[in-house]
Amino acid sequence: MRHVFFVLALLCAALSAGLFYSFSTIVMPGLDLGGAMSAVNSMHGINTIVRSPLFAIVFFGALILPLLAALGARSAGHRGAARLAALAALIYAAAVIGVTLQVNVPLNETLATVAGADANAASYWKDFSVPWASWNHVRALGAILAFLCLLGAWAVDLTSAGRRSYGLR
Q: What does pLDDT average to in each consecutive run of 10 residues of the chain (169 residues)?
């Protein structure tokens, strides 16, 4: 069962990393080029759409599933794999969920009060876009690092299982 947790954790972490990476490299620069009024309206739409069960499964799954994989690895006696999976969850909790809740969500809530047709939209957008994008880079890096820790954890887990199977441990 722990292998299922590892695969699902890797999938959620990869999807999360890809999402935040895409925002850093494509979405936010593209919104900046489209003009403030358009960017504000588009971000309103994005912030509405993102509140979905599918997003929540991936976003929170990238935290919960590594913990389940860590427990499974630990119960199988693969402490190194368990530590790496737990480290992945810790990195993800701090760099992705923590930053999201402490920085990006409050910025989104402030932007939600701005009408895209507001004459001051350009000022609001700049005040929003620069810190939002900067902190999103942290989220992208955190999700990538969590994915890499999980990949390492799974490799250690598989290697440990192989050693046990052949009496090499």
A: 96 98 98 94 96 97 98 97 98 98 97 84 92 98 98 96 51
Task: Identify the pLDDT of residue 169.
Answer: 42
Give the three-state DSSP class for 76.
coil
* Location of structure tokens 């925002």: 23
| 49 exposure class (CB count in 10 Å sphere: 0-12, 13-18, 19+) | exposed
Residue with structure tokens 């192989």? 162
Provide the domain limits for residue 85: 2-165
Residue partners of 68: CB distance under 8 A and separation at least 6: 2, 5, 9
Supply 71's token pair. Answer: 């427990």
First to last CA, the chain: 22
Residue type, 114: V
Specify the pLDDT at position 104: 98
Task: Specify the number of domains making up the chain.
Answer: 1
Could you tell me where the DSSP H helices lie in the chain?
2-22, 28-33, 36-49, 53-75, 79-92, 99, 105-111, 121-165
